[in-house]
Amino acid sequence: MGHTIIDKLWNEHCIADLGDGTSLLYIDRIFLHERTGSVALKGLEDQGRHVRNPEQVFCTMDHIVDTTPGRGDATRVPNGTDFIKTTRDAARAAGLNLFDLGDDRQGIVHVVSPELGIAVPGVTLVCPDSHTCTVGGIGALAWGIGSTEAEHALATKTLVVKKPAAMRVRFEGHIPFGVTAKDMILHLIGKYTASGGVGYAIEFAGQTISDLPIEARLTLCNMAVEFGAWTGVVAPDAKTFEYVKGRPYAPKAEAWDRAVEHWKSLVSDSDAEFDREITIDVAQIVPQITWGTSPQHETGIDQRVPDPRQEPDANRRLSMERALEYMSLEPGTPLEGIPIDAAFIGSCTNSRLSDLRNAANILKGRKVAPGVKAICVPGSTQVKLAAEAEGLDRVFTEAGFEWRESGCSMCFFAGGESFGVEERVVTSTNRNFENRQGPRTRSHLASPTTVAASAVLGNLADVRKLERLRAGSNSE
Amino acid sequence: MCGNWNGCEPAAIVNKFTRLKAIAAPLLRINVDTDAIIPSREIKRVSKVGLSDGLFAGWRYTEPGGRVEDPGFILNRDPFRQAQILLSGLNFGCGSSREHAVWALAEWGIRSIIAPSYGAIFYANCARNGVLPVILDNDVVEDMARQVTDEPEQHLISVDLVDCTVTAPDDTVHAFEIDAADREMLLEGLDAIDVTRKRDDEILAFQARDRLRRPWIYL
């Protein structure tokens, strides 16, 4: 029987079989950020332990940094500066690669790591952050860990891991107009629930995935954790190699040729067996929107708020009822047209250059609806600079969006800047949990284009209609 | 002495787990995320302690950031304030990797969680902090939740990591599975780094071989 890509990545990093399906895995690269990396570095220091290969460890500031122009170490997060300074001091003392505030390599960990060629196909990469699975999109075996495991990885260059089961999710067919990778992954979670992937590593495959640009694959894998999966991965292909080539930490010259030759073998064998297979017909997907407080609380923008009474499963019904109360929504209300207070484009899910271009295409020549607070936070300083070089910042600001420095920003609320109590936000982020974006803030997850269209109309909007309108007016 | 550690000096994190017979608090919600277990705003210091006040802050207190208890929340009710076992729904601890979720639970007094499934990172974090995550079928968890609802002090649940069993108040015994490595770490209260360090020769030999096989990895 052949091997899956997960088997192959696992086997080539397996130092020792510890029995019971558990392995001692070699960890190629470690990324840290100031929110959880700080406590890991401090933990090591307190125990007098050292980082084994500091040249393979990377560190940036993203979670609680201020994102207003002209920022420094000051942050509105209570005691936030302590997290920044502790991380900086510990990273410098340990000799890690530090992308600090003011460095043009700074940004959200999972945006920076592929951008700089730190995440390349075939590497094992860990970070004390659940969205580390993002860089599975480049063919890396990458997963989120806790701070204690981060200490273990830093001190030993290894982790003890139980091998997950393997699932293949095939997306087949052409992506319909107005639909993005974000809609694909939300659809998957909506259909199979937020725990549908628990216990699995997932290979995303199929024609649609082959057709997806790399940044869209990163978006898809980013939310593998919201599906409950241990991680997600897309087999590297010619598009991946083209994306990786020439990036600062990517292999060069002769090493590049050897690497590519190896990377080409990192595909599931034709006779590989997966523990579970799911196939999704992409033609059936419309732009998605969440209505509740779990990513599984989602549906098409053309649908209505569901009625919990129709849900046969008692636990899900209770969760729906709680969610609708929190979100202040009535069953049967059409989702399209629900008024919003704010719109947010950013996060490790959807803040890359392609996301900003797509959103800017919607915003060009349009204005954010009166009363809607709209914010765009590029995922990295590189993304911000590239966007500014092509004038995207002006499109955003002329439409009425704030244009910020890069960071995780209001994807979550750490006690600093947030959306208001009971404000309704349409957001390109990954979690619509209670109080995630602010105290009692009501979050609706969607693609960046849906966020842009909603910001313009002042309500949850079907981006397809807005774009058809533009197409219509242009042809007149 | 306080009934639990809430409000006291943070207790040292206990890393060892063998057997426990204790009050169990039912929190039968699905997809309880780590943002709910400890909101980011409650993580105020670069520290693994001082987190129990922030445990379930969004549900436990009447106002965001406040400290007025919501009497409706299970852990605010006697005798569940003394609970050392938490019963919950599927996918407990999903979401953010923040280990602060486990540190907060442990510091408050929770030593074992019983749920049908867990977020993968949360599950791994538990075993490294002396908290035993038990996986049992949802029907079993719901049945035990019903049994502990009345007179919880009389209807204790026993969790035994030596035998890998949970004994319900009605004396029904339920076997559970746990990875051998996690079980050993909990039973012995081992430090995972020390355990791995014993394999240092193997790790360095692997690295030397790998450097020849995949030289592009080594910066």
Task: Please outline the helices and strands.
The complex is a heterodimer of chains A (476) and B (219).
Chain A: H1 5-11, E1 14-19, E2 22-26, E3 29-33, H2 37-46, E4 57-60, H3 80-94, E5 97-99, H4 109-115, E6 124-127, E7 141-144, H5 147-156, E8 158-162, E9 165-172, H6 181-192, E10 200-205, H7 207-211, H8 214-222, E11 231-233, H9 238-244, H10 253-263, E12 276-281, E13 288-290, E14 298-300, H11 314-327, E15 342-345, H12 353-363, E16 373-376, H13 381-389, H14 392-399, E17 402-403, E18 424-427, E19 442-445, H15 448-457, H16 463-475
Parallel strand pairs in A: 3-4, 3-6, 4-5, 6-7, 9-10, 9-12, 10-11, 15-16, 15-18, 16-17, 18-19
Antiparallel strand pairs in A: 1-2, 2-8, 13-14
Chain B: E1 19-22, E2 24-27, H1 34-37, H2 57-60, E3 85-88, H3 100-108, E4 112-115, H4 120-127, E5 132-135, H5 138-149, E6 157-160, E7 165-167, E8 173-175, H6 180-188, H7 192-197, H8 200-213
Parallel strand pairs in B: 2-3, 3-4, 4-5
Antiparallel strand pairs in B: 1-6, 6-7, 7-8
Amount of beta strand of chain A:
15-25%
Task: Round the mean pLDDT of chain A to the nearest integer and report it.
Answer: 97
Question: What is the alpha-carbon Rg of chain B in Å?
Answer: 19 Å
Largest sheet of chain A: 5 strands, parallel
What is the averaged pLDDT score of chain B?
A: 93
Q: Low-confidence spans of chain A: pLDDT under 50, at least 5 residues?
A: none
Overview of the structural elements:
The complex is a heterodimer of chains A (476) and B (219). Chain A has 476 residues and is α/β, with parallel strands linked by helices. Chain A folds into two domains: 5-277, Aconitase, domain 3 (2-Layer Sandwich), CATH 3.30.499.10; 289-475, Aconitase, domain 3 (2-Layer Sandwich), CATH 3.30.499. Chain A is 33% helix and 17% strand. Chain A contains 16 helices and 19 strands. Chain A has helices at residues 5-11, 37-46, 80-94, 109-115, 147-156, 181-192, 207-211, 214-222, 238-244, 253-263, 314-327, 353-363, 381-389, 392-399, 448-457, 463-475; strands at residues 14-19, 22-26, 29-33, 57-60, 97-99, 124-127, 141-144, 158-162, 165-172, 200-205, 231-233, 276-281, 288-290, 298-300, 342-345, 373-376, 402-403, 424-427, 442-445. In chain A, the strands form five sheets. In chain A, strands 5-4-3-6-7 form a five-stranded parallel sheet, covered by helices on one side. Chain A has a five-stranded parallel sheet with strand order 17-16-15-18-19, with helices on one face. In chain A, strands 11-10-9-12 form a four-stranded parallel sheet. In chain A, α2 (37-46) crosses α3 and α12 packs parallel to α15. Chain B has 219 residues and is α/β, with parallel strands linked by helices. Chain B has a single domain, classed as Aconitase, domain 4 (Alpha-Beta Barrel), CATH 3.20.19.10. Helix content of chain B is 30%, strand content 14%. In chain B, the strands form two sheets. In chain B, strands 1-6-7-8 form a four-stranded antiparallel sheet. Chain B has a four-stranded parallel sheet with strand order 2-3-4-5. In chain B, β7 (165-167) and β8 form a beta hairpin. Classes of the chains: A alpha/beta (476), B alpha/beta (219). The interface between A and B is large, with 81 and 59 residues.
